[in-house]
Structure formats: structure tokens, C-alpha cells
């Protein structure tokens, strides 16, 4: 994990493996900042949706028990949201380096769409 100090705040960039391990141990809340359409097509199972267009850093819960980690498609929007959270007063925030594309490249499981039926399905890359 890379850590950057922004004033008195800490901005972290986590790797796919760091996010996956912490998420499996229930140590983080993973927030997807992509559009609802992107999320419905494919997403990390258990990730919450808070689209960039509707983001309100002042409405985030505290991080006493679990750290918040944002992710998007490539890492650009999640970095933007993380920095907006810092501007809203959040002191510790993180995002997934490379976003969902890096997650899929690392062959991590996710929920996708069955193109024949349109139904959601678990995808476990091999």
C-alpha cells in the first residue's frame, strides 16, 4: 500500500491483493463509485454502490471499525472521490489501484451478467 499525506489526512492506494484480503476478513467497506449501469453489468460481490455523480463526502460513515476503500473501473474516479472525501474532512481514506480492471486482471471473482439470460452470475476466472 502506498500512503500519501494530504494536510493532516492519509490517502492510501491499495493493491488488488490488499483489498481482496482485507475484504475477505471483513476489515473494509468497499465502495464502487462507477455508474449504476456499470455496477449492474458487473461488480465485486459485496461492494456497495455510491456513484461519483452523487458522492457526498460529508455523508460517509466514520471508520472506527472498518476502513473505507473506493474503487471504479480504472482507479481514476476512485482517486477523485477519495480526494473529495479528504476535502470533506475524512482523515483516512483509500482507493483500489487500477480499479475493477485490475481486479479482473488479477483473476479475482466477481458478479457478471449472463449474456444469454441477462441474469447476474458469479464469475470465477481461472
TrEMBL record:
GO molecular function: thiosulfate-cyanide sulfurtransferase activity
Signal sequence extent: none
One Pfam family matching this protein: Rhodanese
CDD domains found in the cross-reference section: RHOD
Stored InterPro entries: Rhodanese-like_dom (IPR001763), Rhodanese-like_dom_sf (IPR036873)
Stretches that traverse the bilayer: none
SUPFAM superfamilies named among the record's database cross-references: Rhodanese/Cell cycle control phosphatase
Residues of the Rhodanese domain: 24-112
Keyword Metal-binding: no
Keywords associated with the record: Transferase
Name recorded for this polypeptide: Rhodanese-related sulfurtransferase
Naturally occurring in which organism (per UniProt): Lutimaribacter pacificus
Amino acid at each position: 500500500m502506498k500512503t500519501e499525506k494530504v494536510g493532516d489526512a492519509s490517502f492510501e492506494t491499495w493493491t488488488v491483493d490488499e483489498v481482496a484480503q482485507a475484504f475477505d476478513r471483513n476489515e473494509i467497506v468497499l465502495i464502487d463509485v462507477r455508474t449504476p449501469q456499470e455496477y449492474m453489468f458487473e461488480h465485486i460481490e459485496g461492494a456497495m454502490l455510491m456513484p461519483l455523480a452523487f458522492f457526498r463526502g460529508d455523508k460517509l460513515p466514520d471508520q472506527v471499525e472498518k476502513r473505507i476503500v473506493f474503487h471504479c473501473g480504472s482507479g481514476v474516479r476512485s482517486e477523485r472521490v477519495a480526494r473529495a472525501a479528504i476535502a470533506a474532512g475524512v482523515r483516512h481514506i483509500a482507493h483500489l489501484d487500477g480499479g475493477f480492471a485490475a481486479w479482473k486482471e488479477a483473476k479475482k471473482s466477481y458478479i457478471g451478467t449472463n449474456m444469454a439470460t441477462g441474469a447476474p452470475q458469479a464469475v470465477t476466472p481461472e
